């Protein structure tokens, strides 16, 4: 999948999507930003042409941050706004730590950052090669249905899943359309490869050690957006961010969970715009 230019006018904003999603899935959120910003997005490595990548080529998320840096360098982009959801927020932060001149501000939407107490437990699980059993999302990802009769069937399937319960019908329809591509047999298939998605889940916590060690060096203003409805068992690293970056802005969106940018796109977009008006 090629890079996406959503249009808009004003300062450049790069949006990095979450694991398992595509840039287009965030169209309702992006629509709140394009009146003031030119929004672009470079798809994560799993969405590159199939003959150019394989899941085993990465052992943590750092190469994905390098991909973002290479994308910006190739286009001569500097002093941009970096925003991202989940893993997208983390790799944007990593890129800003490595190449501070590229970013004027960073906005992370429910980034996958875990406190040390969780990381020490995960270190043991990872060392014993038990990640595939301990991570709740990996088995479900590998069992996921990938071929459907139509995008409408994807919507109907997802409408019944608890993870999408807080999404409006309109936003879920837009998301379902953006997650599939047509097949030669007339059906549709999910664009994001499940083997890649599972791999990214399995190696995710490894990069958090680096993030916590380097976070105090961040030069760009930082926004962290969280949903008020925290998923059960989801570790919260908000206090760790506050401790290392006292001036970071942390905002909560009422009624949103981890998928807040898909559930509450107008509200999340409003929080980002308000932050950028002051910080960038």
Structure explained in plain terms:
The protein is 42% helix and 16% strand. It is of the alpha/beta class and 280 residues long. It has a single domain, classed as 3-Layer(aba) Sandwich (Rossmann fold). Strands 1-3-2-4-5-9-10 form a seven-stranded mixed β-sheet, sandwiched between helices. A three-stranded antiparallel β-sheet has the order 6-8-7. Helix 1 runs parallel beside helix 13 (265-279), helix 6 runs antiparallel to helix 9 (194-203) and helix 7 crosses helix 8 (169-178). The longest helix has 15 residues, at 265-279. 41% of the residues are buried.
Count of individual domains: 1
Tally of alpha and pi helices? 13
| CATH architecture name | 3-Layer(aba) Sandwich
Q: Which stretches are poorly predicted, pLDDT < 50 over at least 5 residues? A: none
Keywords:
three-stranded antiparallel beta sheet; alpha/beta; Rossmann fold; 16% strand; 280 residues
Itemize the secondary structure elements and their pairings:
Blueprint: E1 4-7, E2 12-16, H1 27-33, E3 38-41, H2 62-74, E4 80-85, H3 87-98, E5 103-109, H4 116-127, H5 131-134, H6 137-143, E6 147-148, H7 151-159, H8 169-178, E7 180-182, E8 188-190, H9 194-203, H10 208-214, E9 222-227, H11 238-244, E10 249-253, H12 260-263, H13 265-279
Parallel strand pairs: 2-3, 2-4, 4-5, 5-9, 9-10
Antiparallel strand pairs: 1-3, 6-8, 7-8
Helix pairs in contact: 1-13, 2-3, 6-9, 7-8
